[in-house]
Write a structure and sequence with these properties.
The chain is an alpha+beta fold. It is built from 5 helices and 4 strands.
Length: 194
């Protein structure tokens, strides 16, 4: 029943929007014509400045949207990306690795395979909910799964150690879903790089 209420609300909002008979003003957000094009920023590449269409009225820019790295951050696979893409995020009470993080973990494993002196420590974390024992076990399982993925893609057992921190190392303090989502992670910590 609880899940059907938001769906019903969303459906009614969509239907009411479709029933609108007035004139829809042209969008000022679409600046391209022709075939579909993807902004390079969506692919993790620098984007060129877009031309601003001439207008007679002043347009007020919307407030900036803040996003969590959990959902919107593009995964970069270059050398700099290896330095910034070092966290793997998990669902509530889950330790399975989402497909979104496989490319970054393969890149880390490739780096480790090419640099046999490099060493990493995988630190498994959990959010504050649950008992200390549960969070320690969950953090350990998350770290083990990241370790297994790295080993499967070329890293050696001597290069990858694991550690569970449970809920003791929150990245974001708070008692809300945004904070909890940020804290449900495993971090790839380079102890030695080449």
């Amino acid at each position: 029943m609880r899940a059907s209420l938001p769906v019903a609300f969303l459906l009614s909002a969509l239907l009411s929007g479709c029933a609108f008979k007035g004139e829809i003003p042209p969008s000022t957000h679409i600046l391209q014509s022709g075939p579909f094009k993807v902004d390079p920023a969506l692919l993790g590449q620098p984007s060129a400045a877009r031309p601003v269409p001439p207008t007679t009225a002043a347009i007020v820019a919307p407030p900036p949207v803040t996003t969590s790295p959990v959902s919107d951050a593009p995964i970069k696979l270059d050398a700099i990306g290896l330095r910034t893409q070092r966290s793997v995020y998990f669902d509530v009470n889950k330790a399975n690795i989402k497909a979104d993080y496989e490319p970054a973990l393969r890149a880390h494993a490739r780096y480790l395979a090419e640099h046999r002196q490099a060493r990493v420590r995988i630190e498994g974390n959990a959010d504050e909910r649950g008992t200390t024992e549960h969070n320690q076990r969950l953090g350990l399982n998350r770290a083990k799964n990241v370790q297994s993925t790295l080993l499967a893609h070329g890293a050696t057992k001597q290069q990858v150690s694991i550690k569970t921190l449970g809920a003791s190392n929150p990245r974001k303090l708070g008692h809300d879903e945004e904070s909890w989502a940020e804290n449900r992670r495993s971090d790839v910590v380079y102890e030695r790089e080449e």
